[in-house]
Amino acid sequence: MFGYLVKRLLQMTLVLWIVSVIVFLMMSFTGDPVFMVVPVDATDAEIAQARRLLGLDQPMPVQYWRFLVSLVQGDFGYSYVFRQPAMTLIMERLPATVEMVLVAMVFALVISIPLGVYAGANPESKISRFIMAGSLLGISLPGFWVGMVLIYLFAVQWGIFPSSGRGDTAEFFGLRISLLTGDGWHHIVLPAITLSLATTAILLRMTRAGMMEVGRQDFMKFAKAKGVSRRDVLYRHGLKNAIIPVVTIFGLQLGDLIAFATITETIFSWPGMGKLLIDSIYRADRPVIVVYLMLVALIFVVINFIVDLVYTLIDPRISLK
Amino acid sequence: MRITPKRALQLCATSVAFAAVSTFGAMAADKSLTIGLTSDPSHLYPLAGEELSSNIMYYHLYDPLVKRAGDLSFGPGLAESWENVDGTTWRFKLREGVTFHNGNAFTADDVIFTINKARDSIRPDLVANIADAKKIDDTTVEIITPKPYAVLPNDLAELLILDEEYTTETGDEKMDLQPMGTGPYKLKEWIKEEKLELVAFEDYWAGAAKIDSVTFRPITNPATRTAALLTGEVDVIQDLAVRDVERVKSEDKFEVLTRPSLLNIVLAMDMREKSPTIEGPNPMTDVRVREAIARAIDVDAINKIVMNGLATPSDQFVPSSHIGYVDGESFRDIYALDIEKAKSLMADAGYADGFTMTLDATNNRYVNDGQIAQALASMLAKINIDLQLNIMPKSNFWGYIRVPTENSSFIMSGWDVPSGDAGNMYGALFYSRDKKEGYGQVNRGSYSNPELDALVDQADATAKVEERDRILQEATKILLKDIPMIPVHYEQDIYAVRKGVTLEPRVDKFMWAYDMDVE
């Protein structure tokens, strides 16, 4: 276990380093951030002054070296656009994103697992066919379209939910959480549904495929013959054996949604960090992009680590090496 | 109604006192307003950067010496009056009894401090026309320009005055989060990307604002912005999407307000002997080819088809409200759409078979910019110009097209002059390159005409506004004849409000709650 942890930590450091190099290289092709800051008719002297103030007057390798040195000292750099620490900008927006993604993932789990188990156990029934057709829609409908339709129906036409924004929040250990207020829940429903749709469909299809595969196994027939209730056959014997790939996908989806919930955030003007990434890309704001992507890499590594731990809980035959 | 800052400027030299409206503000309790903006401000510190949402906040929180009204007329702000003592010296009499939100008194020291602070900031352009500033006494400041400069007061409308003591203590980084000005509103709370709340400053020198509390919400997606208005979550939205105009108009409870903006979409043509994207000699050095291009572009069709009728074809390089505009002259009449004439001009110039060049344009900076570029390609194809499109996001664009324009032959960009004066634009865009420091730095087409240079020099050598206007009008006439650029159209600003909200759109797009009211 200890050796495994050390190996994982080393891998993580390597991944983070590679991400930082790639972002630095990439950003040198995507336009000069100075021109996003100065007025269009700025003179050469004014541009030089801005370049100096932003620390962009040094050659690329020097900039990268400075970045690494500050990083080791815990300084993640300053946004060119906001002139604030990049890490602060991201951290201010992180709770909103995580909260929306968690609610979306809970929606996805609660809907996809039972429906997937049902569809896998009764592949021929009409209801199963209906569920599968619905899941195809969930995968193929683009999120921005679904979001707009939900806003149109539930906010503009029927006035059940607000169209956008995050609503009231309450402080919890210094973090602003909207799940602690009724108004916050009122605001989070539509974006969370929009965000959960594709994940629900994928998880549902994975669960169904796993259940169908497991259903043909001898131990399932044996359990049935032994007189175990149908419910226990499906959930305790069937699902437990079918769920490993579902957990893997769940982990990947979770990371994906936290990192790139951009479209849903934009449509519902949800004050999360995905919008920050897009804005920063448009404005060539390299420090924010670097820190953001490194954080995303970190989130993926951590989630995968947790997924590995969960494997061992579900299936004792798997061990971490 | 025609807007004439020229006249207004003459008026304000005699200092018209502002009618205070404070009594109304005290009577109506708790008026509040929520405004949906297209984006969250990046800054609340005026010296940290410039972009529309930030500008809107700056003018709520701070005041300039000279105030620019919604129709581009200029009047007294923190300065009560001013006079031009000699060619380069201006004396500003400051308003007495003005306090910052923290109670500090506004004095001449704050003005001097702001000017010096700006010089070392990321916005030295704000004080580019100020050589020196001197405190005469607590309420008098003398500003020296490097050369006679008739429109100094217009420039000062963009310089927002900081509190010396507070700004020094707080530091640049924190100033962005904890602003402190003399403006009509104070910051209550700013939750990034979520909402920014302002409350009226009781002791505002022109009387407390009518609306006590104003909340700005950034709603980037245009359809969501419309939805938020229709559901009553916001009272006012900025930039109503063109496709939603009819929908909002059809509801009784809402109103759509439009106003031509100052942003002129222009096409710059390269006039060097050899142009980067054109093989062989550059045809556009010939004025006949430039005229042919101008005549082949159907501005009305672009307006109708690409812009849904929500653009105003531009008749000159600056709008009629500006110093340097020539009454009665219109690019649209001089070079009316005429494909036959354009073809024969091309033939006369020896390019009957046309030529190939590349247009550099953005796809996320101006309204429908990508589609305009495509329309231009099909229009120029009619006179055998094969227009290749090089369309890119704005983050790449400004660096790519930057003078000395080593990549470009034909560039589409926008230009606006909120200072109400053509001189700055002509000096930056049309003055010969590399001849004089601070001139021609954005002359992307390398246009050079000694006559024009001389006129700009003359305009910048007089301290009299009428004189400057007359000279710049001459310059406008030369530019209309030489066609270094083709003006296309002004975008239209579109707002939507709930009925009961009084809002008169400003020409410079800076929404200002102090001028608004709600029922």
Automatic annotation (TrEMBL), chain A:
Localization (cell): Cell membrane
Membrane topology: Multi-pass membrane protein
Gene3D superfamilies assigned: MetI-like
Domain of life: Bacteria
Transmembrane segments: 12-31, 100-118, 130-155, 184-204, 242-268, 288-314
Organism expressing this protein natively: Maritalea mobilis
Name of the protein in its database record: Peptide/nickel transport system permease protein
PROSITE patterns, per database record: ABC_TM1 (PS50928)
One Pfam short name: BPD_transp_1
Keyword Mitochondrion: no
Gene Ontology, cellular component aspect: plasma membrane
Keywords carried by this UniProt record: Cell membrane, Membrane, Transmembrane, Transmembrane helix, Transport
Record bears the keyword Membrane: yes
Family to which this protein belongs: Belongs to the binding-protein-dependent transport system permease family.
SUPFAM superfamilies given in the database record: MetI-like
GO biological process terms on file: transmembrane transport
Positions of the ABC transmembrane type-1 domain: 94-311
Automatic annotation (TrEMBL), chain B:
Domain Solute-binding protein family: start-end pairs: 75-435
GO biological process: peptide transport
Keywords: Signal, Transport
Region forming the signal peptide: 1-28
Subcellular location: Periplasm
Main location group: periplasm
Domain of life: Bacteria
Record protein name field: Peptide/nickel transport system substrate-binding protein
